[in-house]
Amino acid sequence: MRKPFSWARAVSLAVLLVVVPAAAVASPPQTAQQTQMNLAMKVGVGLGVPYGVFGVGIDVGIPYFSLVGGIGTALEGVGWGAGVRVYFFNQTRKFRPHFTAVYGTTMIVQDVKTVNGFGFYAGLDHDVGPVGGLILTYGVGLLTNEPPGYGIEDPRFSVKVMFGANYRFGGRQ
């Protein structure tokens, strides 16, 4: 059986096909001295599972890998999220595509409060100005909701966006 056409899936695929190659071209590599393995931490506010639906998030890690977590409001209760993020380039680049896998609050349903599940995002960190400091994080993701049911149209999967404004401490500035 063929799945019906989905604009959300088509737009997500188009964004990924444009963002990842554009980031590779727009962000040339730095010298070996600039690629040291420094521990860096990002703290920010945003929207998405890594930010607890809408709240604050933290990202702690080394240039290609980090742990992410967040806590926020889900209108009907506390939202949260925890997971890992893998970067395709190190922190010396102005544009850094990444893949994020998190578990946390994915949905708000009336009378049931919050629903947890997994979120898988493909996204981009974009340093505003020089590398380090203010960083904008964008992403498009597929969310799974557990447990299914609750009378909603598509209880198992949904496509959502992630956005955050962060400040990086440590690492290469």
Description:
- The chain has 173 residues and is mainly beta.
- It has a single domain (39-168), classed as Beta Barrel (Porin).
- The chain has one helix and eight strands.
- Strands 1-2-3-4-5-6-7-8 form an eight-stranded antiparallel beta barrel.
Q: Could you provide a short overview of the structure?
A:
The protein has one helix at residues 7-26, and strands at 40-48, 53-62, 65-73, 78-87, 95-109, 113-127, 134-144, 157-170. With 173 residues, the protein is mainly β.
List the helices and strands and how they pair.
Elements: H1 7-26, E1 40-48, E2 53-62, E3 65-73, E4 78-87, E5 95-109, E6 113-127, E7 134-144, E8 157-170
Antiparallel strand pairs: 1-2, 1-8, 2-3, 3-4, 4-5, 5-6, 6-7, 7-8
Total domain units: 1
CATH top level label: Mainly Beta
Q: What is the number of beta strands? A: 8
In CATH terms, what is the architecture?
Beta Barrel
What's the total helix number? 1
Q: What is the rounded Rg?
A: 17 Å
Sequence of secondary-structure elements:
HEEEEEEEE
Structure classification:
mainly beta
Q: Tell me roughly what share of residues is in helical segments.
A: 10-25%
Separation, N- and C-terminal Cα atoms: 52 Å
Outline = elongated
Mean pLDDT: 76
Question: Major β-sheet, in short?
Answer: 8 strands, antiparallel, barrel
